[in-house]
User: What shape does this take?
Amino acid sequence: MINYPQQRLRRLRQNASIRSLFDAPMPGPEKFIWPLFICEGSRRREAIDAMPGQFRLSTDMICREIERAVQEGIGAVLLFGLTEDENKNPNGTASCDSQGAVQQAILLIKKSYPHLVVMTDVCLCAYTSHGHCGPLDSNGNVLNDEALIHLNHTALSHAAAGADCVAPSAMMDGQVQSIRGALDREGFENTLLMSYSTKFASSFYGPFRDAENSTPGKGDRQGYQQSFRDDKQALRESLIDEDEGADILMVKPSLSYLDIIYRLRNETNLPLAAYNVSGEYSMMIAAADRGWGDLRSMVRESIFGLRRAGSDLIISYWSNRYNEFFKD
Ligand code: PBG
Assistant: This one.
């Protein structure tokens, strides 16, 4: 065995030019998906306190907001809807309104940027009066099969407005099969389905719930989202969604779950997305603000970890600053 002193790994990293022969490239902008929060009304561009640099936008403000990211070559946007409290009800039926903010936003974006891939979050929690991801029984548990009916309608309303891809995030059993079936029956067999296939019950969604005003009034989401203490079930969640017909799988959150991304990568040949969630975004900013690290370097390092673990797509709030953060 040849070892030190003949073998010196530092030879391979002695200067920037030599290092760049071996370093893998940063993922390109086309691998990044930018989540956007769409609200009702007009001329609204409200800063989200817990997510500096991100805004709640009314439909008329979106095209201007995404122009630079589109020019930089971003891969897709992922739309999240918001509604006023008076439109919320126990079943979250405002989520499938063809005149809703998300449905209108899809139409507008597709008109201005026909080649931009438009994805939509399909869930009910921003539209239910109680803030859970489906209708509740008398004990406060989400009714799985009832939720599917409303998720189907919501996905169909997005596909009808022209979404390229619907992304169910409610963690209901059978939601992929159910939505795929509904899309196919209605002639949307080309609409992609990206499943939030392994979505953990996570404390890293805090800033998002502030943005969306979707914190459950009572209880939490542990009855439907995945426990972070059960890795086997976490893998089953995604593999079942593959069987149900998902086109793209996802692990969410991302930075605490690199093992799940890596293991899934070895068990599926479907494209895999990592969702770099709101808490993961905001904590970097908070640390940098305190002078505890350089923001750009921390972001590059953490996002590259998602790539090494095996994700093909990166859903991240950093996407709108691709050149600034990721261009070499
Ligand atoms: C809705 C949904 C959530 C997120 C994406 N879709 C919140 C939740 O489940 O409470 C979180 C996104 C983020 O934190 O960036 N079901």
